[in-house]
């Protein structure tokens, strides 16, 4: 193994988990056992396990010394399934928005070059009890953006198109269904709940010249997802 050896360990273990070699809720080997298997230090194994926890593939229900493969979504407890079917979860009634100009992370900067600072739009949707959806969007600075991001309507992408002087060409989305990590359960204020299913949605919006004008990351509690975009009609006359 070369480079950062713990990343190589992550790649192997991730592949084994996703392929089904390790059944859901299986207790994984100790750090010493894996260190011997891969010929690396126990600290490298600790880093690998930390990454797999962050990816939502393993969890530690009984303390940091016991690491298990996450239960499959089909094995979520009946209590949690009923909790998610509650109509209040499907219709959040409180929305909190925060907008600021900040230095973007490297992965966003690579998609949206040319500006040291971008507009970050963060939104939380909450029902009467807890947060059910977290959204983070990135945009180039624009004078109108502060108004139209706060109050988006069906003309939002028309405004975005007009700002950049060319039509929006397409949206590209990646949707992954997985379980929440411990950090995400704290974010969603569901730390008292057992492992919950989550939708991890990432969207990139491009113009006709292939310029990225929007990068969005959405975390939504639940297992079902409906995509519906209404792109404003643009007359050529």
Attribute tags:
237 residues, alpha+beta, Chorismate lyase, 2 domains, two-stranded antiparallel ribbon, globular, disordered C terminus
Walk me through this protein's architecture:
By secondary structure, the protein is an alpha+beta fold. It folds into two domains: 66 residues, Winged helix-like DNA-binding domain superfamily/Winged helix DNA-binding domain (Arc Repressor Mutant, subunit A); 142 residues, 3-Layer(aba) Sandwich (Chorismate lyase). Helices cover 32% and strands 27% of the residues. A six-stranded antiparallel beta sheet has the order 3-4-5-8-7-6. It has a two-stranded antiparallel sheet with strand order 1-2. β7 and β8 form a beta hairpin. One of its GO terms (biological process) is negative regulation of DNA-templated transcription.
